[in-house]
Amino acid sequence: MNKIDKIKAELEAFAIQNADNLEQFRLKFLTKKSELQELLSEIKNVAPEERKDFGQRVNELKQKAQQLFEESRAKLEFQTSKSENLLDVTRPSTAINLGSMHPISIMMNEVCDIFEKIGFSTVSGPDVEDDWHVFTALNFPEEHPARDMQDTFFVELHPDILLRTHTSSLQVRTMEKQQPPIRVICPGRVFRNEAITSRAHCIFHQVEGLYIAENVSFADMKQTLLYFAKQMFGSETKIRLRPSYFPFTEPSAEMDISCNICGGAGCALCKHTGWVEILGCGMVDPNVLESCGIDSKKYTGYAFGLGIERMTMLKYKTNDIRLYFENDVRFLQQFKAAGER
Ligand code: PHE
Fold it and tell me: Is residue 299 a contact partner of residue 213, using CB atoms and an 8 Å limit?
């Protein structure tokens, strides 16, 4: 009985704080050779009148030891798993490197925003086109050089299918679907079989504009394009229209803006002229209106096509068009702020 009391006191005083303690506890109380287990085999030697009481107490003690062992083990396991998963909420975070909008996308969105403010809506269409939408409906004569393999990428197995060389195909697609009044702006990628240099690429981007209604005049077009130039390049910007030729507009013009790098004084970018060309435009040829099912006696309109790379180079003062296609992150990252505007 004294031995039971002694072991019980030891058991109660035993502190299990780590895995080592737990093992010591097991050795001391739960193995076959431990004092407690030995007491169990003593039961049969105890005098019969005390045996029942003795056996009960030893068994209780054994159960207690077992229970303490299990509880302590579970507690320790929980603690270690908790400390392994522990989150240090005060630890400084590593910065997440977010991408940015591509300068070409930024510029296309900006152009569309400016025209949307005066009632144009944005539409898009396929990069892979057919001859009708890129050339025939746009009044290109059969022998026009733009139809030549040297300028246009054709699909080898199907000479009627090609990569669009300009977004003017969207004029046709819009007029085929919709009667005037039409006011659309069409951003897109275009392809031409050209040698790649610092100023030219075989892939580039345009934004096409089309306005068809009754009594639309060349003066309306000029005023709209002046509004655009001032919104895009600042209120000091001047425009100049030079006579030009496109099969689908008559009369046709090319528009220059005063060089925003030298302010018109003359520099390398504007080749010392003070002016930089940014778009082609003109009054939609009646033949085109008729091809698309629009009454050319009732309606007139204008169209224009802006070169996005040229404008982006001007706006962000870069001198090599290839930078926009190489996608070097060191270059692209510089447009982060512009894209968050
Ligand atoms: N499509 C012409 C080009 O690619 C630009 C243009 C568009 C001219 C609309 C006049 C009217 O050069």
Answer: yes
Which residue, judged by its Cα, is nearest atom 10 of ligand 1? 281
Please say whether the beta carbons of 315 and 230 come within 8 A: no
CB of 205 within 6 A of ligand 1: the answer is no
Alpha-carbon Rg for the chain in angstroms: 42
CA–CA distance, 119 with 129 (Å, rounded to integer): 28
Token reading at 68? 């303490």
If you take atom 9 of ligand 1, which residue's CA is the nearest one? 304
- Does the global pTM surpass 0.90? no
Cα 6 to ligand 1 centre (Å): 104
Phi, psi of 261 (to 5 degrees): -90, -45
Q: Mean pLDDT, to the nearest integer, of 45-68?
A: 89
> Hey, which of 129, 134, 248, 289 would you mutate to test ligand 1's pocket, going by the most ligand atoms within 8 Å of its Cβ?
248
> In the structure, what pLDDT confidence band is assigned to residue 159 with cuts at 50, 70 and 90?
confident
How many angstroms separate the alpha carbon of residue 298 from the centre of ligand 1?
23
Which two tokens mark 251?
A: 């009369």
